[in-house]
Design a protein that fits this description.
Blueprint lengths: L9 H14 L9 E4 L6 H13 L2 E5 L8 E7 L2 E7 L5 E5 L12 E4 L2 E3 L6 E3 L4 E3 L18 E7 L2 E5 L22 E10 L3 H8 L5 H4 L14 E5 L2 E7 L20 E7 L3 E5 L3 E11 L2 E10 L5 H32 L7 E4 L4 H16 L8
Helix pairs in contact: 3-5
The structure holds FE2/S2 (inorganic) cluster and fe (ii) ion.
FE2/S2 (inorganic) cluster binds next to loops.
Length: about 375
């Protein structure tokens, strides 16, 4: 078994950023990548990606969103209705959210339940998925209730994130490998955002893992606090981390290395292959899941979490920061992503080119390509 490399510690990141600032450099990748534009608009490619998203462990929600026994989230993941719930025993489980009678979804949205009662004819399931009750059971004389529970899918609670694997196989790698505690157990969910927009999920992802666009793309919002193209880019297995430093990190140059505090000096953006991002800011952390709806449409589900320690003032600061990000930088990224998607039918580009500064994107495409090839060249699964 290969041991996955983990990310650098904060001190090493600070040292590396300060050296880049001093020397006018930034982290460079080893390859320029050309990605066919067709991969962002073809139905065939889209279906292969969806099949892959069903086969891999994919972040579904933060564990903190399912804090209490009975807490659940129901939503569509890779085109399939999925229900994740914390059981009475404290274990998070996930199921295909389909009643075993005639297929209605047994839960919708989020909430806390003691059982799931199908809204159609009332078949009732336990938090562990077992079929507990059938109304007027005499109408189904031969029904084997034991084999008509909700159909489970693999759920793994790792690094503060619930990963769901719809089509799991025995030798899948552990999704938490190399991640440590990305979201700490005491972080509380303070906000959830859910919206759809007209771009391919990969365009949105790409815009989140490079700092080459900060000066032009976020001139009035992030650039005044950040840098033009200064980043640290690291990889761990198929995942990456891109560090976006704030200018105030330069104050640390005169602080002894052992006393340097990174909080408030950088934003860490973790890309969890294939379609999730964890952004660690000064007072809060955001888990974003990019849910492909169609080649040119993506649902963006964002969970904001904060270290509040039950302190309402801390929660307010975190919410204020979260609002700044969602009101300023996020709409700029979204407008750019939509503009990219619009140009795809112009035939201006046959390929998009990712250079040495955009190496986390290159890493992503390299692994996406390999994973799609591994799972067969055809449109299986669709
Ligand atoms: S479809 Fe669920 S009880 Fe009939
Ligand atoms: Fe951006």
């Amino acid at each position: 078994m290969t041991v996955t490399q983990t990310f650098m510690d904060d001190q090493a990141v600070i040292e590396r950023v300060l050296s880049h600032v001093r020397n006018g450099t930034t982290d460079l990748g080893d390859e320029v990548w050309r990605e066919p534009v067709d991969h962002y608009r073809s139905e065939e490619r889209f279906h292969r990606e969806i099949a892959l998203l069903r086969r891999l462990p994919v972040p579904f929600c933060p564990s903190a969103a399912l804090r209490e026994p009975g807490a659940y989230i129901a939503r569509v993941a890779a085109g399939v209705p999925i229900l994740a719930v914390r059981g009475e025993d404290g274990t998070v489980r996930a199921f295909r959210n389909a009643c075993r009678h005639r297929g209605a979804e047994v839960a919708s949205g989020t909430g806390c339940a003691r059982t799931f009662v199908c809204p159609y004819h009332g078949w009732t399931y336990g938090l562990d998925g077992r079929l507990e009750r059938v109304q007027h059971e005499g109408g189904f004389p031969d029904l084997d209730k034991a084999s008509h529970g909700l159909v489970p899918v693999r759920a793994q609670d790792r690094s503060g994130i619930v990963f769901v694997t719809q089509d799991a196989s025995a030798n899948d790698p552990d999704p938490g490998e190399g991640l440590s505690d990305l979201i700490a157990p005491d972080q509380d969910l303070i906000d959830t955002h859910d919206n759809e927009a007209d771009f391919n999920w990969k365009v949105s992802l790409e815009g989140s893992i490079e700092g080459y666009h900060i000066r032009f793309g976020h001139r009035e919002t992030f650039y005044p606090y950040g840098y033009d193209n200064v980043n640290v880019v690291e990889h761990s297995g198929r995942n990456s981390r891109v560090t976006f430093p704030f200018r105030r990190i330069e104050k640390l140059a005169n602080v002894p290395a052992a006393e340097r505090q990174i909080e408030g000096r950088v934003t860490y953006v973790y890309h969890l292959f294939p379609n999730a991002l964890v952004t660690v800011l000064s007072h809060h952390t955001i888990l974003v899941v990019l849910e492909p709806i169609a080649p040119g449409r993506t649902r963006n589900i964002a969970y904001s979490l904060a270290h509040t320690g039950g302190d309402p003032a801390a929660a307010e600061i975190a919410k204020r920061d979260a609002k700044f990000v969602t009101d300023t930088g996020a709409p700029e990224d979204r407008a750019l992503a939509e503009s990219i998607q619009r140009t795809m039918n112009s035939e201006a580009n046959e390929f998009f080119t990712f250079g040495h500064f955009e190496s986390a994107i290159v890493h992503f495409h390299r692994h996406l390509q390999a994973a799609l090839e591994e799972s067969g060249g055809g449109g299986a699964g669709g």
